[in-house]
Write a structure and sequence with these properties.
The structure holds two protein chains of two kinds.
Chain A (H helix, E strand, L loop, with lengths): L15 H26 L5 H5 L3 E4 L8 E6 L2 E7 L2 H8 L12 H4 L5 E5 L22 E5 L4 E4 L4 E3 L11 E5 L2 E4 L1
Antiparallel strand pairs in A: 1-9, 2-3, 3-4, 5-6, 6-7, 8-9
Chain B lengths: L11 H9 L2 H10 L2 E3 L8 H20 L9 H10 L4 H28 L8 H23 L4 H12 L8 H9 L6 H32 L15 E3 H26 L29 H9 L4 E2 L6 E3 L1 H22 L11 H22 L5 E2 L3 E2 H26 L9 H11 L3 H4 L1
The chains are: A alpha+beta, B mainly alpha.
Bound molecules: protoporphyrin IX containing FE and FE2/S2 (inorganic) cluster.
Chain lengths: 182, 437
Amino acid sequence: MSAQTTNSKTEDGETRRDFLYLTAGAFGAVGAGCFAWPFIDSLNPAADTLALATVEVNIAPIEPGQAITVVWQGKPVFIRHRTAEEIEEARSVDVATLRDKQTDEDRVEKPEWLVMVGICTHLGCVPLGQKTTQPKGDFGGWFCPCHGSHYDTAGRIRKGPAPKNLKVPPYKFTNDTTLLIG
Amino acid sequence: MASGERASFKNPVVNWIDERLPVFTLMNKEYGVFPTPRNFNYFWNFGAIAMVMLVLMLVTGIVLAMHYTPHADHAFGSVERIMRDVNWGWMIRYLHMNGASFFFIAVYIHIFRGMYYGSYKKPRELLWIFGVLIFLLMMATAFMGYTLPWSQMGGWAATVITNLFSAIPLIGGPLVELLWGGFSVDNPTLNRFFALHYLLPFVIFAVVFLHVWALHITGSNNPLGIEPKGKQDTLPFHPYYTAKDTFGLSIFLILYLLVSFYAPNMFAHPDHFVEFNPMQTPPHIVPEWYFLPFYAILRAITFDIGIPFTEIVFIPAKLGGVIAMFGAVAMLFIMPWLDTHPVKSARFRPQYKLFLLLLVVDFLILGYVGMEPADAMLFGSIKLLYLGQLCTAYYFAYFIVILPWLSRTEKALPLPSSISEAVLNKHKAKPSPEAAA
Ligand code: HEM
Ligand code: FES
């Protein structure tokens, strides 16, 4: 093709047609992205799933040393009424030696109530240790059977493949015996 | 495909159709007279076998889907109903369940065949890549299918595998919620897994079509790994290989049916027959057998990668495991460029053969390690984990170090000058009854 018509070249060989190709391509890509987004976003948690965001728990019947599991957002939440020894054990650890450095004070509102999402931070199994008959691992807290993670009495990771401490969900005490999670 | 020489057919109806849409010409060209190396052994059965298994999975799957309910509250019950109340339901489910296992058996042997005889090498690289893509899609399909009965094993497999993506920095967390459609594996997850489990086999079908198309451009490899030079080196596909494939297929199907009818739960696990409980993980979870070696590679990375003796970590253990697991499959994709040795067949490469057979043993050991609990011991004293790490190291060394190294240094045995010469010499050396007659 001859380049004598509108297709005049600039010094470095670019043509107006190149510019049109690029802008058309850019608009096309942005348009395709805008079109794809609603379909991708539709896979995110729906409004009714999000609406299950809080749950209220009566903690009066839980004796020291006992623990219960409640369901919040489809996930197990561990509520443990810790004994004085368990609190003492959790607080006597040198934080600098931990994988995920957090003091026990950072993880609780009231020392005797430990509230955590009961999902191993490795690959999502539910650790054992809620029932008195279950293994509690080497640090008296929880033990994940899937790949062998050990958590202490503050739910902090001490041994095994999990990278993080058990997550603390947002929660507050609405009165002395009621806990609102979420 | 459309133009070109048309075959002529005696049957006027066939001829009439063929003039308008040359499907019969196509079938005849690709499966009738198609020139095929004359020296295939039984390893060459497994492509056809895999194809038949795919069709069987489609047929059994579509009928199962007519009775199955993809809802967290009803899925387990609907599968139990299939087993007890639906006419022939037990048989169709067992054929589907064991069909997945036998499909993987066929495909693993098929892949080994490709590696042993160098079928991934020029000019068949793209053909090989389509094959690895099929393998990857099969893994995704089988994984999602396994969650559908909403069992303890299936549900927790889904939990652990989707959580792998949480290891990706920054976007990991939101990405996993996107996969789940919630905050845990729940009804939205089941629903989309069902939709995808229905879709992906058809995508596989399309990629198989491309795979076979590419095959018919380059032609088949063969046990000698040298290309046919003329008519004397090939046979028409029909009746020679249609007959040989039918024979191999029959044996394979007999084994598949024996397991499906007489030991249908051979590959299954008791926790796969208990309904999913998101509040309680079974004490020992394992994936389906065909994932075990990759699962062992995932678990072998228990250490952070960073600057030693400092707190600086580039790749935390969890991410490292995920990278290693996907990397193990990625190795297959790039294999044509890792092994650049000009000789294809392992028959003429004694060193390559040795390392490849070691890789097979290595893969089987990885499978064993993947099956055992994470803290298991070997002979009561050595951590099984170390064996897993050793085997993982060999797996990667094979691809990244050994293949490129052998490509440069290995001296191959002399190749025969043609397929026909090699075949005829073999018969001269050992006179067969018909040669004597
Ligand atoms: C690549 C082909 C396929 C593979 C590898 C595959 C694999 C699997 C596996 C491993 C299961 C779990 C079986 C069990 O433990 O009970 C399953 C279940 C299921 N599959 Fe497939 N599948 C394939 C194709 C299909 C197709 C095309 C459909 C049709 C829609 C389908 C529909 C189903 C249904 C409804 C179930 C749940 C019922 C059951 O568990 O038996 N599958 N699939
Ligand atoms: S999921 Fe808990 S250790 Fe892997």
